[in-house]
Amino acid sequence: MKRLAHLLLGLPVLLQLPGCERMMHNMYDQPRGNTYGTSSLFPDGAASRTPPAGSVAHARGARPGSSSGRLGADRAERRARDEAAQTQPYPIDMKLLARGQSRFSIYCLPCHSPVGDGDGRIVRRGFPSPPSYHSERLRKVHDRYIYDVISKGYGVMASYADRIAPADRWAIVAYVRALQISQHARVDRLPVDIQKKARHALSGAASLTENKQ
């Protein structure tokens, strides 16, 4: 009898629980104003608000969410072309290499190191070492392979497609190729003044080795 009384006392609470279920949906089903919809919250009756004076439109990606930040046909077509290219679509000049160095220093250098040998500061703190750009395998890969690794990631490396625009990915590819040449250049193909410095450095190193022996 006592147990039945407890059940009867708890019954009103159980009957009210379904009414609380809706409260649990507010995080993913929030009240909102639809685009171009009406709202009694504002004097003009419109749900959408006009951007504050001085707002600057910002476009990101081929389909930005704001109509005021559209890329425009020319930029969207160029982005599509860059994404579809199988080989370097830009002429290799100092402007492209400078841009590639800038983006490389921001996104790649911490792991790959300034010279691309995979001994960056993050690696020295315990992160897995990426392969060296100067390995035989990576010196032989196509430009598109490097572009795709930047875009899609590889191994423990995440995709950088959301942070690096296609044009900048190609600039990084050009800079990586320059790094590869820098570590595997033939001495006789260097400018004369640099050849002299290289030979002087090599002879000095050889003399130091002989003295130690």
UniProtKB/TrEMBL annotation:
Residues 95-180 form the Cytochrome c domain. InterPro entries: Cyt_c-like_dom, Cyt_c-like_dom_sf. It comes from the Bacteria. Keywords: Heme, Iron, Metal-binding. Residues 72-84 have a biased composition (Basic and acidic residues). Pfam families: Cytochrome_CBB3 (PF13442). Residues 35-85 are annotated as: Disordered. One of its GO terms (molecular function) is electron transfer activity. PANTHER family: LIPOPROTEIN-RELATED (PTHR40394), QUINOL:CYTOCHROME C OXIDOREDUCTASE MEMBRANE PROTEIN (PTHR40394:SF2). This is Cytochrome c. It comes from Allopusillimonas soli.
